[in-house]
Amino acid sequence: GGSSITQQLVKNLLLSPERTLRRKVAEAYMSVILETRLTKEEIFALYCNQVYLGQQAGFSIHGFGQAADAYFGKDVTNLTLPEAAFLAGLIRSPNRYNPYQEMDTATARRNQVLDSMVDVGAITREEADGAKEEPLKVAAVKGRIDASEAPYFADYVQNQLGDIIAGVGVAQHLRIYTTIDMDLQRAAYAALAKQVAALDKVQTRRFAPGTLQASLVAMNAKTGEIVAMIGGRDYSKSQLNRASDAFRQPGSVFKPFVYATALNTAYDPVPRVITPATTYMDEPKTFSYDNGEYSPGNFGESYSRGPVTLRDALVNSLNVITVEAAMEVTVGRVMNLAGKAGLPKPARAYPAMALGTSEATPLQVASAYTAFANLGTRTTSVAINRITTGEGVTIAAPTPQKSEVMPPDVAYVMNSFMKDVVNRGTGAKVRARGLKANVAGKTGTSRDGWFAGFTPNLVCVVWVGFDDGSQLGLTGANSALPIWTDFMQVALSDHPEWQGDWQMPEGIEQADIDPQTGQLTTSDNPTRRTELFINGTVPTPTSIEAPEEEATPDGPDGEWQTIPEGGDPGPTPELAPTATPRPRPAPRAGEEGARLEGSITLDIDPSTGLMAVETCPVIRTKTFVIGTEPRTYCGPEYHRGRTVDPSASRPRVVASPPR
């Protein structure tokens, strides 16, 4: 197209290859500027390092340094005369002179370059003739690029450079110091390659070997430094970085943000205070929203048909209770909290989002999980530590951004939930595979398999699935968890300073509860469990926590709210009649302040001790000293197997006929 070397350099380095007049004018203008700043030799050197010289094993070859390694397996400084002449001849048409497909044409082009060198006096005729007699011997094509050498991470760093430096500085000789730990990178690749090969072998009837993909990203929770990144199983076959660029549904890996929002009611009791001991009925339910209904199901359609505490609901990854908790605190608030942690925020919130249907990349999930690892503070990821000139002058030193996502005590309680996931829940295979370190994490199963886990200093997220979105058909525990566990074994062994436990914040109380009821219990109860509570939320003997049966939409008149940009979804409709007092944290029995002056009269269902609603079979009026009254409403779920006799002057209990 008549472009000069300077113009070609500008196009390759600073502009896109689009064929427009606007781009051509910008190319000419920038070329003039570049020639006033650099010498012809400097411009030519940059051109030689950027020029396209063919393609091999699925990736492009740019610059003579990379071409020397790709075609001859040696450093550019060690090239012979005929080898150098061949590479120079490739510039005109790398595909036409491809030595692996057109050896004769490539040899003829090399000889033509040698003759041209004689014409300009660069070499003698004798040197040219001697070089022509040597056969063109190129190195064997590499079957694939070893992902353990971090090619995906190198691409990611290259993309990040444009956001860090701009202008003429891009065209200078720079030194880039990255965050990657090559020992951990190799460990990550070994763990990933081992698992996908095993799945290929045992799942041959379900999918063709080699089609399954996986990615892993690990980052320092405190500094945000990416220490390992695998974007796929084979870079030579696919350069898509699934760790940073592939948006997929995270499934149950998202659930901790639902439960964190629920625990945050200790500070924002809308519609009530929810604690780790709050119980929900584990049974099929249908939730109404907009003009539709949503009926989630537990994995395998398995239900206990009884009350389950909030902690055990996450430990066992119960879908229905997760959606119910999200509906109670409003899905909008859940998505706002996730948005503060760096996950993509949708324009509207729907019940299914509580189960991780809103897409995110593994890198975004890893950054979001730093909010748990750092006890409430999120750290953004960093791939480049610093950039210097050839003389060693630092011109950029990126630093991570930190922001508060949740209070430290909420994060601490959530971490205890996720430690239980690993110790006795859906992530128990971590222990079965021999990892003894103190870790927390969450499995995820959508169409893909996920595992996100962490220590106070290291966060690692693994994804396994198909590029076309096909159903994996395996849980996160059976697909992604083995990769995560094998990698963490090496990482925590090489870096013991990344192990440890979280220090309990001052705003945490402990109390023994009965896990069957969520209520306080005595030391002689053999099933008791010590539970963590945010100060002021320990249940009292009369404050039985249980949910309403019917779901309430996020907005007034049964409509969903659009999440505001500011992050606050606005006022939430009350879930009960406004004439009764709103639930609030109560002082523990026996504490100073437990006895408050004044009294309050409420309608009570004596069979449950809860505040009565219209469907209660028996309603009585009772007066309480303020501070001792129940704070939870009764509901149909507490009266299974009983009906109301409408002929009585006051409702009474009547036995239902047997089924």
What can you see in these coordinates?
- By secondary structure, the protein is α+β, with helices and mostly antiparallel strands.
- The chain has four domains: 5-133, Penicillin binding protein transpeptidase fold, CATH 1.10.3810.10; 146-250 and 359-396 and 440-505, 3-Layer(aba) Sandwich (Beta-lactamase), CATH 3.40.710.10; 251-358 and 509-539, DD-peptidase/beta-lactamase superfamily (Beta-lactamase); 577-659, no CATH class.
- The chain is 31% helix and 17% strand.
- It contains 18 helices and 24 strands.
- The strands form nine sheets. A five-stranded antiparallel β-sheet has the order 5-4-16-15-14, with helices on both faces.
- Helix 1 packs across helix 2, helix 9 (182-202) packs antiparallel against helix 18 (481-494) and helix 12 crosses helix 13.
- The radius of gyration is 32 Å and the shape is elongated.
- The model is unreliable at 543-597 and 642-659 (pLDDT under 50).
Task: Summarize the topology.
Blueprint: H1 5-14, H2 21-37, H3 40-50, E1 52-56, E2 59-62, H4 64-72, H5 81-90, H6 103-119, H7 125-133, H8 151-164, E3 174-178, H9 182-202, E4 213-220, E5 226-230, H10 255-263, E6 279-281, E7 287-289, E8 292-294, E9 307-309, H11 310-315, H12 319-329, H13 331-340, H14 362-373, E10 377-379, E11 384-389, E12 394-396, E13 402-404, H15 408-424, H16 429-432, E14 440-445, E15 449-454, E16 458-465, H17 476-479, H18 481-494, E17 508-514, E18 519-520, E19 529-534, E20 599-605, E21 610-611, E22 620-625, E23 642-644, E24 653-655
Antiparallel strand pairs: 1-2, 3-11, 4-5, 4-16, 6-9, 7-8, 10-13, 11-12, 14-15, 15-16, 17-18, 17-19, 20-21, 20-22, 23-24
Helix pairs in contact: 1-2, 1-3, 5-6, 6-7, 9-18, 10-12, 10-13, 10-15, 12-13
